Amino acid sequence: MKLEAKWVALWVMTVGTFLVVLDSMAVTLALADIERDFGTDSGIEWVFTAYIVALGVTQLASGWISDSFGRKNAFIATLTVFTVGSGLCAMAPSLPVLVAFRVLQGLGGGLLIPVTTAMIFETFGPYERGKAMGLWGIALTVAPAVGPLVGGAIVETVGWRWVFAVNVPIGGVGALFAWRIMTASQPGEHRSLDVIGLAVASVSTSALTIGLSEAESWGWLSLPTVASLAIGLGGVAWFVTRMLRRSHPLVNVALFANRTYALGVVTSALIMVTQMGRGLFIPLELSSTRGVADITVGFVLLPAGIGLGAFMPFGGRLTDRFGSRGPVTVGALLMGLGFALLSRLGPETDLWFVALALTIGGIGAGIGMMSPNVVAMTALRFDEVNQGAGLTSVTRQIAVAVGVTGLVAVSAAVEDTPFESGDPVTQAAIDPFNAVFATCAFVMALVLVIAQWLPGPKWMRAMQDARSAEQP
User: Residue 138 is part of which domain span?
Assistant: First the structure.
C-alpha cells in the first residue's frame, strides 16, 4: 500500500472505530426518551446491555474471521453489519425489536476493533505502529468524552432515533472508502471454526457480563446473580481448558505464555478499568449528587478528552522510539496524580478544579494508554496477530466488567446512607466517589510498578527488528 493510501486507510479505520465507541456512550443519553417513547417502565437497560454483550461475544471469533476471509473483507463486512444494524435501530417500532437490532449492531461493532488492530499491524511497519496506533487510539478515547455531549445534543434537537441514524451515511461512506483504498490481505491459516467452543464462550461471557452488570439491582446473593456468575466463571474455565488442548484454538490463550504480551495486556486492561471508572463516576458525582446540568458536565469532561486525544499520537511515537517503559511510567504518574486530586473532592470544590484534575489524567492517559497495547502486539509473530488482537479485546472487556463492578462495590461499602436527589450535598455524600478515585490512584501505582518490567529502548528495537524480518 502506498504511503499516502495507508494513512488514508488508517483514518477510515479510525472513523469506523469512533462510531462504534461513540454509539455505546451516546445512547445512554437517549434511554429516558426511548423509554418514554415506547411507553415502558422496565427493560430499558437492555438497550445498553444487549449491545455490550454482543460486542464481547463476537470478539471471540475475530481471529478466525480475519484468518478465514482476510482482514480487508472482515473490516468491510463488520462495518457494514454495524451500519445496517444502526439503520434498523433507528426504525425500530418497539423496545424488544430495538434490543434485537442492538444485538445485530453489536455483532458488527465487536468485530471491528480487533480486526482494525490486526489491520494496523499488517499495514504499518514495526517502526511506525506506535504512531499509527496512537492516532487510531484517539477514536477509542475521545469518543467516550464527547459521547454524552453528542448524544445529548442529538436527543434534544432531532430525537433519539438520530443517535442511530447518523451512523448510516458515515458508515456507508467508510465502507466504500475501505473497499477502494485498502489493500486486500491474503487469508491466514485455514482452520475449522470451533462451534462448540464459541457457543460455550458466548453463553459464559454473556452470563458473566449480565451477572456483573445487574448484580446491584438483583442483589449479590440473589439466585439470578449467583447463577449467572457461576455459569460465567464455570464456562470461562472450561473454555480456557479446551483452548489449551486444541491444535487450532478459537482463541489462542497460550499467547499469555509470552511474558511481554501478557504484561502489555494486563497493563492495558488496568488502565482501561480506571478510565471507564472515571467516565462512569465523575458524571454521577457531578450530576446526581451536586445537581450539575448534563451539558455542564460535558464541558467539564471535554478538556480531558482533548488532552487525551492530543497526546495519544505523541505517546505512540515515544513507544516506537523508546519502548513502553517510559511512556507508561510517565502516563501512570500523571493519571495517578489526577485520581489523587479527584479523591480529595468536597461539597464546595470548584468545577475548574475537577476539570484540571481530569485534564492531568487525560494527558497521562494520552501518553501511556496505547503504549502497552503496541508492545503486546509487537511481541507476537506476524501469524499470531489476528489471534492476539481478539484475545486482547476479550481480556480487556472482561477486565473492565469485573473492575468497574469492583469500583461500584467500593463506592457501596463507603456509602453510609443512600443519597437522594435534592438532599443537601455533604462530605458523606462525596466520600463514596472519593474512595473510588483513591482506588483508581492505587491501581495506577500498581501500573507504575508493572511498567518497570515493560520493554525499554533496546528491547523494543530488538522486537521491531524481529518483526521487520518477518514482514511479508
Answer: 1-189
Residue 179, C-alpha cell as written in the block: 473497499
CB contact burial 292-306 (16+ within 10 A = b; e otherwise)? beeeebbebbbbbbb
Whole-number CA gyration radius for the chain:
21
95-124 pLDDT, tens per residue?
889 989 998 988 888 788 888 887 887 778
User: 363 and 241, same structural domain?
Assistant: no
**Residue 71 shares a structural domain with residue 107:** yes
- Quote the crossing angle between the two packed helices 351-368 and 259-283, to the nearest 10°: 160
- Cα–Cα dist 81/88, whole Å: 11
**How far is residue 136's CA from residue 343's CA, in Å, rounded to a whole number?**
31
pLDDT-flagged residues of the chain (< 50): 1
Closest CA to 430 of 354, 355, 363, 368: 354
Q: Is residue 300 located within the same domain as residue 438?
A: yes
3-state secondary structure of 151: helix
Give the 3-state secondary structure of residue 96. Answer: helix
Q: What pLDDT score was predicted for residue 145?
A: 65
Please state the pTM of the whole predicted model. 0.77
Residue that terminates a domain, selected from 189, 208, 226: 189
Number of domains in the chain: 3
DSSP code for 92 = -
C-alpha cell at 128: 511506525
pLDDT at 325: 93
Please state, in angstroms and rounded to a whole number, the distance separating the CA atoms of residues 111 and 48.
17
Packing angle, helices 325-342 and 371-378, rounded to 10:
150
Q: Are 35 and 41 within 8 A, CB to CB?
A: yes
